[in-house]
Amino acid sequence: MTDKRLLRKKIGLILRNVSSQEIERQSRNITNSVIPLLRTCRSVACYMSMESGEVATQYLLKHLFDEGKTVYLPRCTSTEETGHVVLREPKRNYPHLTFHKMQSWQQIQELKPQGKYRLREPAREHPDPLPAQLDVVLVPGVAFSLKNGGRLGHGGGYYDDFFRRYKLQHNGGKPLLIGLSLNEQIVEGIDLEIHDQKMDCIVTGDGDIRWVELPK
Predict the structure, then answer these.
(1) What are the tens digits of pLDDT across the range 14-62?
(2) How many CB atoms lie within 10 A of CB 215?
(3) Which domains does the chain have, with CATH numbers?
(4) Is this prediction's pTM over 0.85?
(5) Binding site, annotated residues for substrate
């Protein structure tokens, strides 16, 4: 297996031993630290957390609606389904994300697991949306490095593909990228490949905020 596959396996084994109570404790710490960072932001992309193994986002999502933010959630799809441009080589069908504007906290609560990964994600829209203008993306991951802002995903390349699409859609601009990480997901270093997008900031389960690059 490659180093990344080995690291995914290692972190997965560690997370199996983290209790739901501990994940909830760390998730609340992270929520309390992230909220001030979003005070001046209007459009925020988040994610619906899986039942175990990553930062729970329900507290954060409810706060975003309470504060009147515009909230977007991702949907796993493919270039074959959406007809969107293929950005990877070779030029064939690839998975990617579309982000969908959510209307209310109630709408989010009613989402059911669906799709290949059984995630609670928005229904498909027609046409499939291109990346909207965002102030912040709250990013999940398998592991994060505080040293270089590196992020290790699940291996599908969904988020890195989206970040590239976003830059193409918005003339090279990008939103602030905040990685949400349980303490057990922090590793010493993650080698970055040319297509890997590092985080601007990582918020950890003890509530610490680590800036990789200070916001301009």
Answers:
(1) 999 999 999 999 999 999 999 999 999 999 999 999 877 899 999 999 9
(2) 8
(3) 3-211 (3.40.50.10420)
(4) yes
(5) 48, 54
